[in-house]
Amino acid sequence: MSNLDVRLNCLPVFDNHYGRPERWTGLRVDGLVAEPRTFSATELEAVADARLTDDFRCEEGWRVDNQRWEGVSLAELLQVVRSLPTARYAEVSAAGYSVAVPLFAAHEPDSEGPTPAHTLLANRLNGEVLPEAHGGPCRLVIAGAACYASVKWVDHIRLMAERPEETAQQIAAQRDNQSTQS
Predict the structure, then answer these.
(1) pLDDT tens digit string along 141-163?
(2) Fewest beta carbons within 10 Å, which of 7, 24, 29, 181?
(3) Cβ neighbour number for residue 118 with a 10 Å cutoff
């Protein structure tokens, strides 16, 4: 598939997704924060009051329209842990699968990319608890971002001064190459 003409009614489930944990033990937020903390699913649910509706588009050529995500915004979570002024990026990861979210984009007009306010740690999808198969209990959702940036089973957010190395795009490209060679 090379175009976005294929519309699906719901998100597909992939068995070979990188970063799937044996057991999700919480979301650790550390690095350049005043109060490092590990959040349980229940604690995330308690602070979750953000909503984001977006079409979910995959580079493989399919999309699912109007997905309604609910959870906690990255901006809100960073207030809870009190991010330090020197923090410029959030490395959001599950196992070795990671993306970098710039924390400064909202304040610098020439910068590109997602902002913490448009970045959600989702625990609900379309009014239902986010199933484990779709990344529950904690999935990164960034408005308008490539689907590989939607990290499932997020278990670590590390705030950093320098842009971290991202593995998500490279791993997704390798997976796409393997599936086209099969």
Answers:
(1) 998 888 889 999 999 999 999 99
(2) 181
(3) 21
